[in-house]
Design brief:
It is a single chain. This protein is mainly beta and 374 residues long. Helices cover 8% and strands 35% of the residues.
Length: 374
Amino acid sequence: MTDHIGAPGTGISRREYLAATGGTGAAVLAGCQSPMNLNSKAAAQSDLPTTSPPSVVQVDEQGGEVTLRSVTSRHPVHPLESMGGPIEFPQVWAFQADDREPSVPGPILRTTEGNDMEVTLDNTDGSHAHTLHFHGSHKTWENDGVPTTTGIRVDPGEKHTYTIPANVPGTHLYHCHYQTNRHIDMGMYGIFRVDPKGYEPADKEYFMTVKDWDSRVPRQMNGEDVDYSPRQRNPDVFTINGKSLPRTLHPEDGSPMIVDSGDTVRLHFVNAGYMSHPLHTHNHRFRLVEKDGGQIPEAAQYERDITNVAPAERHTIEFEANADPGIYLMHCHKVDHAMNGNFYPGGMVSAIVYRDVMDTDIFSELMGHAGYEG
C-alpha cells in the first residue's frame, strides 16, 4: 500500500490523510448512468499488469541514471459503474522506471540543473520499436530521439542509452518519437523536471499531465476490430494524470491537490495531448511563473484563474491557499472535456481540497464516487 496521497509531488502522507478524515473509509457508490464501457476485450488480456499512478524518480539520488521500459498493461481510467463509468483501456504501453510499477503517464524524472542524466531505454522484452525524445534539453544530435533524422531506433531485443543534459531549468515533457502519433496515444509520455540551482520548493508542489484520448487506439492495438485513422481522430476520454473524474479524486490512485490554509502551492501543468486545454481553478487566482522552461519575469506576472495549455506546452502556476476552506474544482473549461461520454461531470476534472474539510460528509461522499474505501 502506498504512503503517497494526492497528486505526484509533495502532498501529505497516508497517516496524515487518515488523521484528517477521522480514519473512516467511504462506501463505494455504484450506479449505471450513461455507462461508457471501453473494456470489451479486457477479459482476453486479463493477464496484463495494471498501471499504477506516476511516481517521482529523483534521478540525482540514483547517480544520474535511470532505466525505462515499455510494459504492455491494462489502464483503468475510471473503473466504477458510476458517473459514466466504467472506463478502461484494455491495452496501453506504460513506462516503467527501474523496478517501480508501470504507469501512465510515465514516471516523473526529476534532476537538478547542471547534471547529466543517463537514460537507458530497455526494449529487450518489447514487441515494438521505440525511442525517447526529451523536450527542454540542449543535447547532441544522436541523443535527440528521432529515428528519421538520427538513424537510431531501439528495436525489440535492444537497449540504448541517451545522455540528456539538465541544462534548461523547468518542467518539460518526454515521449516516444517513433510512430509518435500512435505511441503517445498508447501512453508513452511523461514529465521531465529540471530544478534550477538554488531551487526553493513551495509548501505544496504538484505535477499534473492532461491528455485527450481516442479510445479506439488502445482498443485497436488490443485486437478489437475498430475503424480508426489518425486523420479522423475523435477524442472521447479526457484525463488528468491518466484518470477521469471521479477517479481523479481518489487519494492514492488519483490526483487531488491537498492543501492547508496559508500554503503557497506550485502546480506544474503538462499537456501530452493533441488539443489545447484551458485549465481553470475555482476560487483561487494564480500567477503563471514559468512556461516551457522559461522563467516569467515578475513584472509580467498577473493574477488569473485560467491558463490555456497547448499541446506539449508546460505551464507552472503558483497560488496561495487563501480561500474559505472547502473543496474547489480544477478543470478544463472546454466543458465537453469535463465529461465521461454523455455523463457530466467527468473527464478532465480534479480539485483543490483543504485538509480542514476532509472529515465532512460531502468529502466522504466524493470518496465514495472515487472508489476509496479507506
